[in-house]
Structure formats: structure tokens, C-alpha cells
Specification:
Layout: E1 2-7, H1 14-30, E2 35-37, H2 48-54, H3 61-73, E3 76-78, E4 82-84, E5 93-99, E6 105-110, E7 116-119, E8 122-125, E9 138-140, E10 146-149, H4 158-167, E11 171-176, H5 180-198, E12 201-206, E13 208-210, E14 216-218, E15 222-224, E16 230-233, E17 239-244, H6 247-256
Parallel strand pairs: 1-2, 2-3, 10-11, 11-12
Antiparallel strand pairs: 1-17, 3-5, 4-5, 5-6, 7-8, 9-10, 12-15, 13-14, 15-16
């Protein structure tokens, strides 16, 4: 199985962002990728008004394009994430979709963990604009390979990834807009840790460069195997990376070092009160 992560520098210009995504997705498919992952908020990055202006329902231009190009190129496309307008909900959702090679929506995941932090001299309050999702989502490729969905800040919450692995995830997609500071210090460690502890392939597609409203993403998109080996990593520029995934090797790893099978769920108990 050949997979790709697309890395781009989204601005507030939705049409321009979609044109870049189209070009890079086609390039990844031309390189033989049959599973392609776009980054978080690939349709727009910027101030709150930019994000609200770019928000759309799942039958809007972005996902309509995603369904069309997946069908045209006959690829599995994880369309990063978009800001979704949800009927009956005041706030937006940060939503990733998995589109199959026939152009059908196989799964919809709404980001569970809100990025409410101060880092690199910048304050982020995703919860002011976005409503967190409540469901962990496992999808499957047309060949039956388990595909776990996650978004960006989720990467810091190993519980989500363990549940995906236990449910059968063999590949895990991580569309992201990791900040420059956290990309430099934490990104590779976190991506490789999620791959190693869940013995899964991780396809982590990050934004890169400066965005409107003073944001800056760190790039270095990665594809990592279940042993934690980095199969491919992006330079600090727009483009795509590809890697061949050896599913037989994954089965060997899970059989010879059976950490998933050796779990003891009966011994795990959440504290009655967790201190921050």
C-alpha cells in the first residue's frame, strides 16, 4: 500500500488553497499513492472571521471537490479537516472526512480536543469558535484496512489512539496545523510514540509556514511505521511525501512484540478525580 501526506501553506483565500490542494493531491496520486491525507484546515487559515467565512456544510465546495477527485483518481482521500457548519449548532466543527475511491463518504470525524493554549507567544482558543466532537471514529479502506481518524491536538491524547488501535486501526491519519514551536520540539516524538505504542502506521500531514493572524505552522509532515521508523518526512515547504507500507511487517511486529494483545483492561481504572 502506497500512501501520501500533503503539506501546504493555507491562507484566508479559500479558492487559492483548494487549487493548491488539487495540484498536490494529483501529484501524490501520480507518485502512486492510493491513500492521501491533507492537513488540518486546508481550506482556510486565519483570523476568526476568515474561518467563519470559509465554513461550509458537508455538501459544500470543499467536500464536493474531495469526493470528485477521489473518484477521478481512484484514491482513498482523508480530506484533512475543514470548518464545518453543523445544522442546529451555533459553533463550528473541525471536521475530517474519509472519502473512498468511488467518491463516497466513508466516515466523518469531528475533532474531540480543543487547542486552548498559549504557545510561542500566541494565544489559541479553539473552543471559542469550535464545538468539540464526542465520537472516536474508525473507518476502513476499500481493501478492508482499518483507518483511524484524528486531528492535530488530538495527538497529545494517547487514549484516543489506543481506542482506535483496539478497534482495529492499522493506519492512523493525523491532519495537523502544529505550531512552529511545538513542531520543532514535540511533533516527531509524538507522531513516533503514537505509532510505536499502537503498532500502527501514522500518516501525519502538517501545515507549513506563516498564516494570517500571526499563526505559523512547522511543516515536517511524516509517515511512520509501526516500529517507529520514519519512512518519509517533508522539508519545510509545500509539497507531498510518499511511502510504501508493508502490512505483512506490521503483522510480524504485532505477533512478535504483542503489546496490544498483552493489555490488561481489567486492571486499568480511571482516578475518581483527575488533578490537572
Amino acid at each position: 500500500m502506497r500512501v501520501a501526506a500533503v503539506q501546504l501553506n493555507a491562507t484566508a483565500d479559500q479558492a487559492a488553497n483548494m487549487a493548491v490542494a488539487d495540484r498536490l493531491t494529483r501529484a501524490a496520486a501520480a507518485d502512486g499513492a492510493t491513500v492521501i491525507v491533507l492537513p488540518e484546515k486546508w481550506t482556510a487559515m486565519g483570523a476568526e472571521e476568515d474561518l467563519r467565512a470559509a465554513a461550509e456544510p458537508l455538501d459544500g465546495p470543499a467536500i464536493t471537490w474531495a469526493r470528485s477527485i477521489a473518484r477521478e483518481l481512484h484514491v482513498e482521500l482523508v480530506a484533512g479537516s475543514i470548518l464545518e457548519r453543523v445544522a442546529g449548532q451555533e459553533k463550528l466543527a473541525n471536521t475530517s472526512v474519509h472519502v473512498d475511491p468511488s467518491g463516497e463518504l466513508q466516515a466523518v470525524y469531528r475533532k474531540v480536543h480543543m487547542f486552548d493554549v498559549e504557545v510561542g507567544g500566541h494565544s489559541y482558543r479553539e473552543s471559542a469558535l469550535e464545538e468539540p466532537g464526542e465520537e472516536i471514529v474508525l473507518s476502513h479502506t476499500a481493501d478492508g484496512v482499518g483507518l483511524g481518524l484524528s486531528i492535530c491536538y488530538d495527538l497529545r491524547f494517547p487514549e484516543l489512539y489506543r481506542i482506535l488501535a483496539v478497534r482495529g486501526a492499522q493506519l492512523i491519519a493525523v491532519p495537523a496545523a502544529f505550531t512552529l514551536a511545538t513542531t520543532r520540539d514535540h511533533w516527531e516524538t509524538l507522531v513516533r510514540a503514537r505509532a510505536i505504542e499502537n503498532q500502527a502506521f501514522v500518516i501525519a500531514a502538517n501545515q507549513v509556514g506563516r498564516h494570517p493572524a500571526g499563526q505559523q505552522s512547522g511543516g515536517r509532515s511524516m509517515i511512520v511505521d509501526p516500529w517507529g521508523v520514519v519512512l518519509a518526512q517533508s522539508p519545510d515547504s509545500e509539497g507531498h511525501i510518499v511511502a510504501e507500507l508493508d502490512l505483512d511487517r506490521q503483522r510480524e511486529i504485532r505477533a512478535s512484540l504483542p503489546s496490544l494483545a498483552n493489555r490488561r483492561p481489567g486492571a486499568y481504572r480511571w482516578p475518581a478525580e483527575a488533578l490537572a
